[in-house]
Amino acid sequence: MKRVAVVILNWNGKKLMEEFLPSVVAYSPEWAEIIVADNASSDGSLEMLEKRFPSVGIIRLDRNYGFAEGYNRALREINTEYCVLLNSDVEVTPHWIEIPIQTMDADPSVACVQPKIRAQRNKDYFEYAGAAGGYLDKYGYPFCRGRVLHVVEKDEGQYDTTAEILWATGACLFIRTAVYKEAGGLDAGFFAHQEEIDLCWRLRSRGYRLLCTPQSVVYHVGGATLNAENPRKTFLNFRNSLLMLYKNSLEKDLKQVMLVRFWLDYIAAAKFALEGHFANAKAIYEARKAFRQLKPSYAPKRKINLEKQVLGNIPELRRESLILSFYLKGKKTFKALMKR
User: Fold this and answer.
1) Which SS3 state, helix, strand or coil, does residue 143 take?
2) Contact at 8 Å (CB) between 134 and 199?
3) Which residues contact 199 (CB under 8 A, 6 or more apart)?
4) In this structure, are strands 163-164 and 147-148 parallel, antiparallel, or unpaired?
5) CA distance 139 to 330
6) 275-310: per-residue pLDDT in tens?
7) How far is 260 from 324, CA to CA, in rounded Å?
């Protein structure tokens, strides 16, 4: 019987799957099934899968639901004990599944696990989106063991210990299927970007543990959907970060957090404008406008999250501003940030 479903969400990613799916098929144990959930691709993805990878299951979605709702709809059809949300641009290595699953088997309080993630195009370095496990400051700025803002470290074994984390990257996210469904899955309103951080924050607040097991290693291309300078990505990141903060921040923190974010966001917009990236500056303004419009509809979600919180203070949620520590104090690595 299959214990794990490796679910790859695809939208017109034929070339990526041709390059990376062979490693997933080769290095996945027989008790894991591989499924592609397709967001109504038009590039011949499904025809390629049926011809080259007949053992891979297919869930056909009727349109492009984005990352969040695409996974929600796919996982409704899956009942394995565990699921792996895996990007189509990820190359896996031997035993990439076994180690995280053994970790989760050993402790029912562990809801999510991620492997160590290196850059597929520069394999000596960590990958931006997940590195060796994710954290957050209370103003919504994510960072990782191995990546702080734009500074990505070379992997020299400095983060080779299993660690408690706040969020596991959606590039390769191991999660208990029942927990995913009970928590409501990814927030479909996000469409894409930061939805996995929001889900993980919810789970951590409810007392679950999240880990990085660096003995499992995968390589992620990253930026294969939208590059870093894309205004659409800027809009989604800023809007979704604000929604996430509103949903999950403690009542005693919310007012101050939102005030600080107001200034940080407009400083970021000014920086974009001074650098000539006017579309990105405008995207931040539009993101804040969209957040204000959506905020009333998110009040019920915030109420539910606060009611289900059992951790008042999350150890992996940094109380100090990441921006101030990085730019004013020169703390540009994870170890520097954590040093007292």
Assistant:
1) strand
2) no
3) 180, 183, 185, 186, 187
4) unpaired
5) 19
6) 999 999 999 999 999 999 999 999 999 999 999 999
7) 12
3-state secondary structure of 108: coil
pLDDT digits 0-9 by tens, 140-153: 999 999 999 999 99
Whether the pLDDT of residue 340 is over 80: the answer is: no
Left (φ > 0), alpha (ψ -120 to 50) or beta: where does 15 sit? alpha
Residue 12 CA neighbour count, 13 Å, CB half: 8
Packing angle, helices 278-308 and 251-274, rounded to 10: 170
262 CB-near residues (< 8 Å, 6+ apart): 288
Of the candidates 84, 87, 66, which has an alpha carbon nearest to the alpha carbon of residue 75?
Answer: 84
Number of C-alpha atoms within 13 angstroms, CB side, residue 44? 5
* Closest-CA residue to 100 (of 113, 119, 87): 113
> Nearest CA to 221 among 49, 17, 65?
17
Distance CA 288, CA 264 (A): 12
Task: Give the span between the Cα atoms of 332 and 287, in whole angstroms.
Answer: 27
Sign of CA dihedral 152, 157, 158, 161: positive
CA-to-CA distance for 240 and 234, rounded, in angstroms? 10
Measure Cα distances from 288 to 154, 264, 281, 293, 320 in Å.
35, 12, 11, 9, 23
Pairing mode, strands 172-176 and 82-86:
antiparallel
SS3 call for 327? helix
What is the C-alpha separation between 247 and 302, in angstroms, rounded? 4
Q: Buried b vs exposed e over 28-52: b needs ≥16 C-beta within 10 Å?
A: beeebbbbbbbbbbeeebbebbeee
Chain centroid to Cα 315, Å, comes to 19
In angstroms, the CA 52 to CA 56 distance is: 9
- Residues 238, 254: contact at Cβ < 8 Å? no
Token code pair at residue 93: 């290595």
Cross-strand pairs, 148: 151
- Confidence (pLDDT) at 225: 44
Cα angle 91, 96, 101 (rounded to 5 degrees) comes to 140
**Tokens describing residue 40:** 């109504």
Q: State the residue for tokens 């303004």.
A: 285
